[in-house]
Amino acid sequence: MKLAYWMYAGPAHIGTLRIASSFNNVHAIMHAPLGDDYFVNVMKSMLERDRDFAPVTASVVDRHVLARGSQEKVINNITRKDQEEKPDLVVLTPTCTSSILQEDLKNFVDRASFDSLADIILADVNHYRVNELQASDKTLLQIVSFYLEKAKSSDQLKILKTRKPSVNIIGTVSLGFHNHHDLLELKRLFLDLDIQINLVIPDGISVHELKKIPQAWFNFIPYREVGGLTASYLKQDFNMPFVDIVPMGILQISKCIHAIQEILIDLGNSVDYSSYIKNQTQFVSQSAWFSRSIDCQNLTGKKAVVFGDATHASAITKILSSEMSIKVVWSGTYCINDAVWFKEQVQDHCDQVVISDDHTLVADLIAETDPNAIFGTQMERHIGKRLNIPCGVISSPVHIQNFPLSYRPFLGYEGTNQIADLIYNSFTLGMEDHLLEIFGGHDTSDSKNSTLSSISSDLWVDEALEELTKIPGFVRNKIKKNTEKFAHENNLKQITLETMYLAKEANQS
Amino acid sequence: MTFIKQTQNNQDLTFECETGNYHTFCPISCVSWLYQKIEDSFFLVIGTKTCGYFLQNAMGVMIFAEPRYAMAELEEGDISAQLNDYEELKRLCLQIKQDRQPSVIFWIGTCTTEIIKMDLEGIAPKLESEINIPIVVARANGLDYAFTQGEDTVLAALAHRCPKKEQVNMSISQKHEPLIIFGSLPNSVAKQLTLDLESQGIHVTGWLPSSNYIDLPIINSGNYVVGVNPFLSRTATTLMRRRKTKLIVAPFPIGPDGTSAWIEKICNVLNLKPKGIKQREKKIWSSLIEYTELLKGKSVFFMGDNLLEVSLARFLIACGMVVYEIGIPYMDKRYQKAELDLLEKTCIKMDVMMPKIVEKPDNYNQLDRIKDLKPDLVITGMAHANPLEARGVNTKWSVEFTFSPIHGFTNSRDVLELVTRPLRRNSSLPNLDFVEKI
C-alpha cells in the first residue's frame, strides 16, 4: 500500500479509453463498477467540451456480477451497442477492479463476435503494472496491428507507396495536451515540406483506413509517450522508417526536419530543406529573434525548474537552456518508465535530473531550489502559488484552462512563438523586476507571514506617503508592505522618508 | 409559454426499473464534503489508482488545498496477499496520526477491497486499540451504491459511535423526547434549520454528523430522529434498529413547501402545534415570484444520479413546472414515503401529470425519450450536459445541487437560481440557435 494524495498519470484503462475514443466510430465498453466511467465521459465532455456523447459505455459490475460472474451481461452489452451505434470496432476495456475478478473476458469477446457486425477486441493491459500513458501506447499498437494482420490475411493490404513522399502522423490522441493545435501545426509543416499526409493515427480516423498505413514513406511520432511501440512494429514488420524527434523549439524542429530529409534522400527523393528552415527560423518564428532581443537578455542566468511528461519537460528544458540562456537548475519527469531516454535528453541542459511521480518530493525540491519560474503541470502551478513563484503549464495533468479555444500549438514554428510568450510571461517582467530591486527586492516568502494590513497608513508621514505614491502602481503595495514590516520589526512609530530608505537597504542586504 | 406535451394522464405515480446503465459519481466522492464537514477527521480511501484519479479530478481545486484525505493505493502485492493488510494499514495510519493528528480516521472501503474481501471491519478495532485513534469503516463502493449514498454508508457507520448515556435529567426546558437530525449540511444551513425548529419550541439535541467527531450527539433508545436528505436510508435503518430510535418520516426540507412540511411533521410527532409556518411558507413563495414566473409551464426531465430527484421534482412542480420523468439511482419507498405522498399531493394540487419514477435508469434509453419529449430542461450529469446543449437541449448540471446549500426556507432561492440559470441564459442570448447541432 502506498499513501497517495495525487498522481501525475492516471490508471491504465484511461489510456485505453483515450485511444479508443480518438478513433472515429470506435466504441469502448468498460467492464467496471458504477462510477468508473467518470473519466472519458465527463472529462471528454467537460475538458474537451465535446459536442458528441463519449463513445464509452460501462458494463456495470455490481453485486450480482460478484456472485455469479458477468455471464451474458458483457456479451449482451456488446451486441446491444453493436446494434444501437453500429461501431466499426468495440474495445472491451477491463478496469483495475474487474481485472481482479479474473473473468475470461477473452471468451466473451469471442462469443460476442459471432453476433456482432463490429470487430471486437479486448484491451490487453495490466492495470497494476502500466499507467495511462503506457497503456495508450500499447492499445494503439494493438488496434493497428489487429487491422494490419486482418488486412494481410484477407489480401487487402495496400503496400504500394504513394507517388509523392508521404507520412503517417502517429500519436495525437483525445485529451492530449494541446494535441489538436499541434496536429494543425504539423499538417502545416508537412504541407510546407511538400510531404503528403497519408494518415493521422488515431485522431478522427476510421479503423478501416488503417490498412493504408504502409502506403506512407515513413512514420512520424511527435510525442514520446504514445506511438513509439506502433512505429517500432511498423519498422520491423513493414520496414517503414520513422522520425521521433519532438519538433518543439527552433533547434529541435531543425533537427527533426533534417532527419526527415535524410529519410527522403535514402528513399531516393533528393530534397534540401535548409533554406526552408532558415526562412522559417528568421521570419515565421519570432523566437530566434526574441533570443537576441534585450527582453530575453534580461532572462540570462535566471533560475528555472522543469517538470512534466518526458516529451514536454525535455523539450522545454532544451529551449530554456539552449535558446534563452536560462539556467535550468533541475529538470524532471514522472514518466519513470522512460527515465533513461529522459536523462540522455536533458543531462547537458540542466544541473540535476529528477525522476519521480511523488508530488511532495517535487514540491520540496521546488521550495529548496527557489527558482524564478517553474515550468510544470497543474500541480506545480499550485505549488508555485503557495510559494509565490510564477509557473507556466507545459504538460498534463491539466485543467480546463489548458484546453484553450484559441490556437496554441506547442509544436512547429508557431509553437515556438507560443512557448516564447509562455516563458517570457512567466518570469517577472524585466521592468517590474528592476523596480523591485530598487525598492526592496524579493522577499515573497517572508511577507507572506506578515499580518500587517494595508489600513495602517496612519503610520506614514505625509512626505513618505507622497514618495510612496510616486512608485508605480504594480509594485507600490509590495514596497508599502515591506516598509511597514520593517517599521514594525524595528518598533518605529512612524514611517518617514528615511525609514523607507532604511527598509530598502535592509531588504537588499 | 411552452407547449406541454401530455404523454399520458397518469392517475398515480408509476415506478419503473431499467438496466442500471447510467452515469453517476462513485460514492467515495462523499469524502470531498465530509472531510470538510467533520473538521477533526481524516479520510483514507483504500482502493486503486482508479479511485484516486476519480477523486483527484472530481474534487477539482480542492485537491490542492492539502485536504484531509488520502488514498491507500493498493499495489500488486496487496491484491495477491503477499503483503499483510494489517501491517500495511498500520504503517499508513501511524503516518497519518503523526502528520495530521486527527480525532478519527475513516476507512472508505472500495470495490477492490470488496472483491479481495479485505476484512476492514475486522482489522479496524484491533488497530484502533493499538494506535489509539478511533477508526470508522464505511464501505462506499461502486458495486453497491451511487454517489450520495456514500454519505449514507459513512453516517450509518458513525451512528454506532454516538455515545449513549443514562438519562439523568430530562433537561429543564425539554418538553419532548430528544430529537437528533441526521444528514451532513454546511454549518450555516444546519444552524438555520435548528433555529427554525427552535422557534417552534423544538430543541435539537444534536446533529449526525457534528462538525467535530468528538462532539457526536448522544443517542439513546426512544429518542426521535429525522433525516434532512433523501439518500440516508441506511442511516435511518441503523438508527432505528441498532440505536432503537424513533424515525420521523417526513418530506425533506428542500423548497419552502418541503421545509414547512418537514417542520410540521416534526411538530405533529412531538405533539406541538405548529406556529406561523404556513405564513412563513407563503412569504418565501412570494419572494420567489420572479423565478416561478420563469418556470411556470416549463417541463423538466431528471436523468437521475444523486437521489435528490424526488424532492427537487416535487418543489419544481409546486413552482408550476411539469416533470416528465424522475430518474433515480435507488428508491427507498419506506424512507421516502412522506416525500412521495407530498409529490402526489402537489401534482394533484397543481393539476399536472404524475411523473414516471425510473429507478436504475438506462441513460441511452433516456436520451431517446428526451429526443421525443423535448423537455425545456434536462437535469443531468456532466457527461451528457455538453452533448445535449449541442443538440439544443437546455441542461443543468445535477452535481451542483449536491454541493450548493439547498435546504430550508432561506435557500429555496438558491435552488431556483440554479434551475433557472439555463433559461435566463437563453433569454439573454436569444440567438443561441447558431450553435445548435442538428
Describe the 3D structure.
The complex is a heterodimer of chains A (509) and B (438). With 509 residues, chain A is of the alpha/beta class. Among the domains of chain A are: 12-131, Nitrogenase molybdenum iron protein domain (Rossmann fold, 3-Layer(aba) Sandwich), CATH 3.40.50.1980; 288-438, Nitrogenase molybdenum iron protein domain (Rossmann fold, 3-Layer(aba) Sandwich); 462-508, Helicase, Ruva Protein, domain 3. Chain A is built from 23 helices and 14 strands. Chain A has helices at residues 12-22, 38-46, 63-68, 73-85, 96-101, 105-115, 132-153, 179-192, 228-238, 250-266, 274-284, 287-292, 294-297, 310-324, 339-346, 359-369, 378-387, 412-426, 430-439, 444-447, 462-470, 473-489, 497-508, and strands at 2-4, 26-32, 56-60, 89-94, 119-122, 166-172, 196-202, 218-220, 242-243, 303-308, 327-333, 352-355, 373-376, 391-393. In chain A, the strands form 3 sheets. A 5-stranded parallel sheet of chain A has the order 12-11-10-13-14, sandwiched between helices. Chain A has a 4-stranded parallel sheet with strand order 3-2-4-5, sandwiched between helices. In chain A, helix 22 packs across helix 23. The radius of gyration of chain A is 27 Å and the shape is globular. The relative contact order of chain A is 0.08. Mean pLDDT of chain A is 89; it is low at 444-455. Chain B has 438 residues and is an alpha/beta fold. Chain B has 3 domains: 27-145, 3-Layer(aba) Sandwich (Rossmann fold), CATH 3.40.50.1980; 179-270, 3-Layer(aba) Sandwich (Rossmann fold); 277-428, Nitrogenase molybdenum iron protein domain (Rossmann fold), CATH 3.40.50. Chain B has helices at 30-37, 49-58, 76-79, 85-100, 111-115, 120-131, 149-159, 187-198, 233-241, 255-269, 277-287, 289-295, 309-318, 337-350, 363-373, 382-390, 399-403, 412-428, and strands at residues 14-17, 41-47, 69-73, 104-109, 135-139, 179-182, 204-208, 224-227, 246-248, 299-302, 322-328, 356-359, 377-380, 395-397. In chain B, the strands form 3 sheets. Chain B has a 6-stranded parallel sheet with strand order 1-12-11-10-13-14, sandwiched between helices. In chain B, strand 8 (224-227), helix 9 and strand 9 (246-248) form a beta-alpha-beta unit. In chain B, helix 12 crosses helix 18. Chain B starts with 13 loop residues before the first strand and ends in a 10-residue tail after the last helix. At the A-B interface, strand 1, helix 2, strand 3, helix 5 and helix 17 of A face helix 2, strand 3, helix 3, helix 4 and helix 5 of B. Strand 1 (2-4) of chain A pairs antiparallel with strand 3 of chain B. Chain A: InterPro entries: ChlB/BchB/BchZ (IPR050152), LI-POR_suB-like_C (IPR013580), Nase/OxRdtase_comp1 (IPR000510), P-CP_red_C (IPR042298), Protochl_reductB (IPR005969), Protochlorophyllide_Rdtase (IPR016209). Chain A: It catalyses: chlorophyllide a + oxidized 2[4Fe-4S]-[ferredoxin] + 2 ADP + 2 phosphate = protochlorophyllide a + reduced 2[4Fe-4S]-[ferredoxin] + 2 ATP + 2 H2O. Chain A: Keywords: 4Fe-4S, ATP-binding, Chlorophyll biosynthesis, Iron, Iron-sulfur, Metal-binding, Nucleotide-binding, Oxidoreductase, Photosynthesis, Plastid. Chain A: Its EC number is 1.3.7.7. Chain A: Residues 12-427 form the Nitrogenase/oxidoreductase component domain. Chain B: [4Fe-4S] cluster binds at residues 26, 51, 111.
